[in-house]
Design a protein that fits this description.
Elements: E1 2-5, H1 19-26, H2 30-33, H3 40-49, E2 59-63, E3 78-83, E4 89-95
Parallel strand pairs: 1-2
Antiparallel strand pairs: 2-4, 3-4
């Protein structure tokens, strides 16, 4: 199984973000936290390379921003998007 979480910055959106998390975030280089294209290039690369790293029947789970779904090409036998507790399309599941 491969898991990718591209939403590491969600804590900053809270009304009272954790001081510990904020300290960690501010210590990171911007290029480690922000993707210019909303993460589409990173997720596309992961999707392209993942099948050769997964066993037959293996699954990939990627937490994504639903805004990038229209530009993704998913080279798997099947896939679906799961909604988070807020009802937003959030996790891409793909399988061979």
């Amino acid at each position: 199984m491969i898991i990718l979480d591209t939403n590491v910055l969600s804590e900053t959106l809270r009304s009272s973000p954790s001081a510990r998390v904020m300290t960690w975030i501010t210590a990171q280089p911007a290029t480690a936290l922000f993707a210019a294209d909303g993460g589409a290039a990173l997720v596309s690369r992961l999707l392209a390379e993942a099948p050769r790293h997964l066993s037959h029947g293996g699954r990939l789970l990627a937490e994504i921003d639903a805004a990038i779904l229209p530009v993704l090409q998913v080279p798997f036998t099947g896939h679906k998007v799961h909604r988070d507790l807020g009802g937003r399309e959030r996790v891409l599941e793909a399988w061979s």
